[in-house]
Amino acid sequence: MQKETGEKFGLLLGLAGVICFSLTLPSTSIAVEYFGTTVVGLGRTVVAAILVAVVLIIRKEKLPSLQQFKSLFIVAFGVVLGFPLLTSWAMESLPVSHGAVELALLPLATAGFAMFRGGEIPSLKFWISSVIGSLAVIIYALHLGFGGLQFADLALLASVLILGLSYAEGGRLAKELGSWQVIAWAIMIGAPFFIIPVGLNVTTEMFYAPIHAWVSFIYLAVVSQFLAYVAWYSGMAMGGIARVSQIQYLQPFLMILFATVFLDESITFFTFVIALIVVFSVILGKNAPVSKKRSLLEKN
C-alpha cells in the first residue's frame, strides 16, 4: 500500500513537472525575440545557478561522489546545455505548435534510455501504449502539413535524444542523490562554462526589453531550469522512469494550449481529438507493468 501510494504521488509530481515544462517553449519563443539564442539558452542556467548556490549553501549539501559526478555531467549536457540551446535556436523560426509535436517523441526516448541507464524493462503493454501515443502525434504533424525537415527540426529531434538520455540518467541518480540535488548540481556544473559566452552576447538594448520578455526569461531560469526538474526527477524516482515518462504525452497539447493563450496561435477540434487518444495511451501505459534489472553500469 505504501509503495502504491508513493507511485501515485510520483505520478502527480511528474504531472506538475510536465505542466511547468509545457510553458517552456512558449516562454522561449517570447524571450528569444528580445534576448537572442545564447542568452536565453545558456543565460537561464547562469541565473538559476545563483538561486541554486544559495540553497546548497544554506542546506550545507555535501559534494557528490566521483561516480555521481560522472552521471551529473550526462544530466548537465542535456538539461542545461543541449536542450535549452537547441530549442532556443529552433524557436527563432518555428511556431510553438510545431516544436510541441516533435517533442512529443520524448517519452519514447526516455523509456529507451531508461532500459540501459535506469535498469527498467518496460512490458509489451507499455510499448504498445507508447506506439499509440507516438503514432497519434505523427498523424497530428502530418495533418498540419509540417512536411520536410528543416535544420530547426533536426535541432529539435537532437534535443529529444539528448534530453531523453538526461531524463533517464537523472531519474536513476535521483534515487541515491536526491531529486532536487540532481538538477542543482547539474546547474552548478554547467553555469561556470556559460558565463563568458552569455556575457559576450548581452547588449544594453536587452535591459529595455518589455516586461513580458523579462517574465518569460525569469520563468525559464527559475521554473523551467530548476523547480520543474525538482518535481520531475522526484516523480521519476518515486513512480519509475518509464511509467512517469508516459505523462509527457500530455505535454505537446498543454504547450499548444499555452501557445494559444499567450501567443495567439490557433487550436483546432482535431487537436482535441488527438489529445484524447494521447491521454488514453497515458492511462494505458501508466498501468503497464515495468520490471527491474541491473543496469549496465552496475554490471560493470
From TrEMBL:
UniProt keywords (A-Z) are: Membrane, Transmembrane, Transmembrane helix
Topology versus the membrane, per the UniProt entry?
Answer: Multi-pass membrane protein
Q: Where are the transmembrane segments?
A: 41-59, 71-90, 96-114, 126-143, 149-168, 180-199, 211-232, 244-263, 269-285
Q: Where in the cell is it found?
A: Endomembrane system
Which residue ranges does the record assign to the EamA domain?
9-140, 151-284
Q: Please indicate which superkingdom the organism of origin belongs to.
A: Bacteria
Question: In the UniProt record, does the keyword Glycosyltransferase occur?
Answer: no
What Pfam families does this protein map onto? EamA
Q: Which family does it belong to?
A: Belongs to the EamA transporter family.
Q: Which PANTHER family match?
A: EAMA DOMAIN-CONTAINING PROTEIN, INNER MEMBRANE TRANSPORTER
Q: What is this protein called?
A: Permease of the drug/metabolite transporter (DMT) superfamily
